[in-house]
Write a structure and sequence with these properties.
Shape: globular
Structural class: alpha+beta
Number of strands: 17
Distance between the termini: 63 Å
Number of helices: 9
Helix content: 10-25%
């Protein structure tokens, strides 16, 4: 990155993109150069047009190219030292980040990748009502040894399971190329209300997202939306005194926002505990019986390693609270 001066809280600066930041999203780039600035604020200055690429407005998801010139407006930058000097801060301090990062299970790691089992309730990044997210926790925890940690993809705050973080820019570029080519095989486990029919093996319903700002979007089935396809497979049927359930495997062939949640709900089999597209009255009953979150878990991922070009498979065991809830149900054979 070439510039005559560093990001300044008093005046705008121009930053020229080099190979290190090639193909990086604009919002992630700004977060990397403006340490300590909440991502919600980054989104706001992008939407307002204060951030420019080659003198033109751009979206948060815009990918940067070598030679691009990014205008960074005046931003009050919070240095790392200030995090350490304010351990009693109510919402965002280094003690919280380190404690949260230490509790995140690691599924796989080498010099190129870090794969974690994200807990439910943790956003993948700050913003959307969160002072910090998983990536901020990991960066704080490894600030002395790793400088280029980036999210490769995202999963919903309420969803637990596999999340991949790149440790090198070269790995990030190759993995994102795989994502664009839809070569990953992603499998989720989810518990839905009712007995999922064996004949329902694939759902092809277009999805329309209602907003694209930092607040969580709502998604609808709509003919004008983006194509979305999910494959389903029954794992086990269950019953209890108050409902019937089916544990199913969902393989997403397209990566749309809330895709599994909307496809199951639109098929009349909402996900247990889903507070956005689910059965709200049943969710209250489920909470009384121990399920206080959405039962959706990113369980298995197959991809090509960005350095070795070998196929690797990563699996994440069900979160303890999900496994415990299943133990309260009676498994039944499908007739």
């Amino acid at each position: 990155m070439k510039t005559q001066e560093k990001p300044n809280p008093d005046r705008a600066v121009l930053l020229e993109i080099d190979e290190k930041h090639q193909d990086q999203r604009l919002d992630n780039f700004l977060c990397s150069v403006c340490k300590g600035v909440p991502k919600s604020h980054v989104f706001r200055i992008i939407r307002s047009g204060e951030v420019r690429i080659n003198r033109k407005r751009a979206e948060a998801k815009t990918k940067l190219c070598i030679g691009d010139v990014v205008r960074v407006p005046p931003i009050q930058v919070v240095e790392k030292q200030s995090l350490e000097s304010t351990p009693s801060s109510a919402s965002f301090n280094k003690v919280q980040l380190l404690n949260a990062a230490a509790a995140i299970p690691i599924l796989f790691e080498d010099e190129h990748l870090l794969v974690v089992n994200k807990p439910s309730g943790m956003a993948v990044h700050g913003g959307s009502g969160s002072s910090f997210g998983l990536i901020e926790c990991i960066r704080a925890f490894r600030s002395e040894t790793h400088q280029d940690l980036e999210l490769v993809h995202r999963i919903d705050r309420e969803t637990s399971g596999i999340l991949i973080i790149s440790k090198k820019r070269s790995a990030l570029r190759k993995l994102q190329e795989q994502l664009r080519a839809r070569s990953w095989k992603k499998y989720y486990k989810t518990l839905v209300l009712g007995h999922w029919p064996e004949s329902l093996r694939q759902v092809d319903l277009p999805l329309l997202k209602t907003q694209s700002n930092e607040k969580e979007a709502r998604v609808f089935v709509d003919p004008s939306g983006d194509n979305a396809c999910t494959k389903f497979k029954t794992i086990q049927c269950y019953r209890s005194l108050y409902s019937e359930f089916t544990l199913i495997q969902a393989q997403i062939l397209t990566g749309r926002t809330h895709q599994i949640r909307v496809h199951t709900s639109a098929s009349k089999f909402p996900i247990a505990g889903d507070d956005r597209y689910g059965n709200f009255e049943m969710n209250k009953q489920l909470a009384r019986h121990g399920l206080k979150r959405m039962f959706l878990h990113a369980a298995r991922l197959q991809l090509v390693h960005p350095a070795t070009n070998e196929s690797i498979v990563i699996e994440a065991p069900l979160a303890a609270e999900l496994d415990s809830f299943l133990q309260t149900l009676q498994a039944v054979n499908r007739k």
